[in-house]
Amino acid sequence: MSDALTIALVAHDQKKDDMVAFVRRHAPLLSRCSLVATGTTGGRIADADPGLDVSRLRSGPLGGDQQIGAMIAEGAIDSLIFFVDPLTPMPHDVDVKALMRLAIVYDIPMALNAATADILLTALIAGHTPAQDTEKAHA
């Protein structure tokens, strides 16, 4: 894996505008990261900031959530930013829960809304992630 952090970006339909706004606010940091996103979210991000290199996977309901989950299990994702819409029923809710469960099991930083994502990126800028702190504690 390269030295660049790999960040997965996912947003439910009603949160895609929020994700685009978040990416625009943090473009300088995100430009130094390897970005992976589900299909539609990745397309919206690429349209909003063509300078960002975003690897687009399948749409979430068509397997994109599971692709990111597999990448988490393989150790290829350093953090997950997933803007969840808690007010709209999701037909693929089990995939969403599985993705969040994998982020928890593999202990990667995960943000589910813009406020938490802002804090997460601030921590990444400072060079501290929960995974690094855990490794130091066990050394």
Brief synopsis:
The chain has 139 residues and is an alpha/beta fold.
Give the topology, please.
Layout: E1 6-11, H1 16-25, H2 27-30, E2 34-37, H3 39-48, E3 54-56, H4 64-73, E4 79-83, H5 93-105, E5 110-111, H6 114-126, H7 130-138
Parallel strand pairs: 1-2, 1-4, 2-3, 4-5
Helix pairs in contact: 1-3, 4-5
What does this structure look like?
The chain has 139 residues and is α/β, with parallel strands linked by helices. It is built from seven helices and five strands; from the N terminus they run βααβαβαβαβαα. It has helices at 16-25, 27-30, 39-48, 64-73, 93-105, 114-126, 130-138; strands spanning 6-11, 34-37, 54-56, 79-83, 110-111. A five-stranded parallel sheet has the order 3-2-1-4-5, with helices on both faces. Helix 3 links the parallel strand 2 and strand 3 (54-56). Helix 1 (16-25) packs across helix 3 and helix 4 (64-73) runs parallel beside helix 5 (93-105). The two termini are 22 Å apart.
End-to-end distance, in Å?
Answer: 22 Å
SS element count, helices: 7
The largest β sheet comes out as:
5 strands, parallel
| Contiguous uncertain segments of 5+ residues | 132-139
- Integer average pLDDT: 88
